[in-house]
Amino acid sequence: MENTLPCRKPLRADFHDYSGGDYFVTICTQGKRHYFGEIFNGTMHLNAIGVFVDNEMERLPRHYRYVEVPLWVVMPNHVHAVIRICGNDAADNLSHAQCCRQALGVVVGGMKRAVTIFAKSNGFEFGWQGRFHDHIIRGTDDGNRIADYIRHNVVRWDTDCYNT
């Protein structure tokens, strides 16, 4: 039988092994629904799921000792974060069934799973978009530009491409 599924672009860059480095990650809700709260007067007002997401981002380094999350923002329908995978520690902490190339996906998947379990166990309607976007941070200038974008994301909400 012939495969009729469309060919998809690879999820991660094939020139990078993801075993270490800094990544700008965007994780969206299903259908860009506002599951995390709303922005009023330039301030993000998190609801119960949004507070849990914010706390989970802070807890990621406790769950994955090879991870640092120096900066993140929870928006109404997405999360932006800088996630640092700390080189060989990732290889040492992943099971033999997982390779270093999967370290970033394991971290994001774990966070998404925890939020989904919280939402479902508390009776909240909720869903994630199936994938996430990552950008390999290349140098100080790139990192500073991304940090500025994350820090000012809430006040720029009116012109944000995710504001639907």
What does this protein structure show overall?
It contains four helices and six strands, in the order βββαββααβα. By secondary structure, the chain is of the alpha+beta class. The strands form two sheets. The protein has a four-stranded antiparallel beta sheet with strand order 4-5-1-6, with helices on both faces. It has a two-stranded antiparallel sheet with strand order 2-3. Strand 2 and strand 3 form a beta hairpin. Helix 1 runs antiparallel to helix 3. The chain starts with 20 loop residues before the first strand and ends in a 13-residue tail after the last helix.
List keywords for this structure.
four-stranded antiparallel β-sheet; 164 residues; globular; alpha+beta; 4 helices; 6 strands
Order of strands side by side in the largest beta sheet?
Answer: 4-5-1-6
Rg, rounded, reads 16 Å
- Give the overall average pLDDT: 86
Question: How much helicity do the residues have?
Answer: 25-40%
Question: Segments where pLDDT lies below 50 for 5+ residues?
Answer: 6-10
Number of strands: 6
How much of the residues is beta strand, in percent? Answer: 15-25%
Biggest sheet features: 4 strands, antiparallel
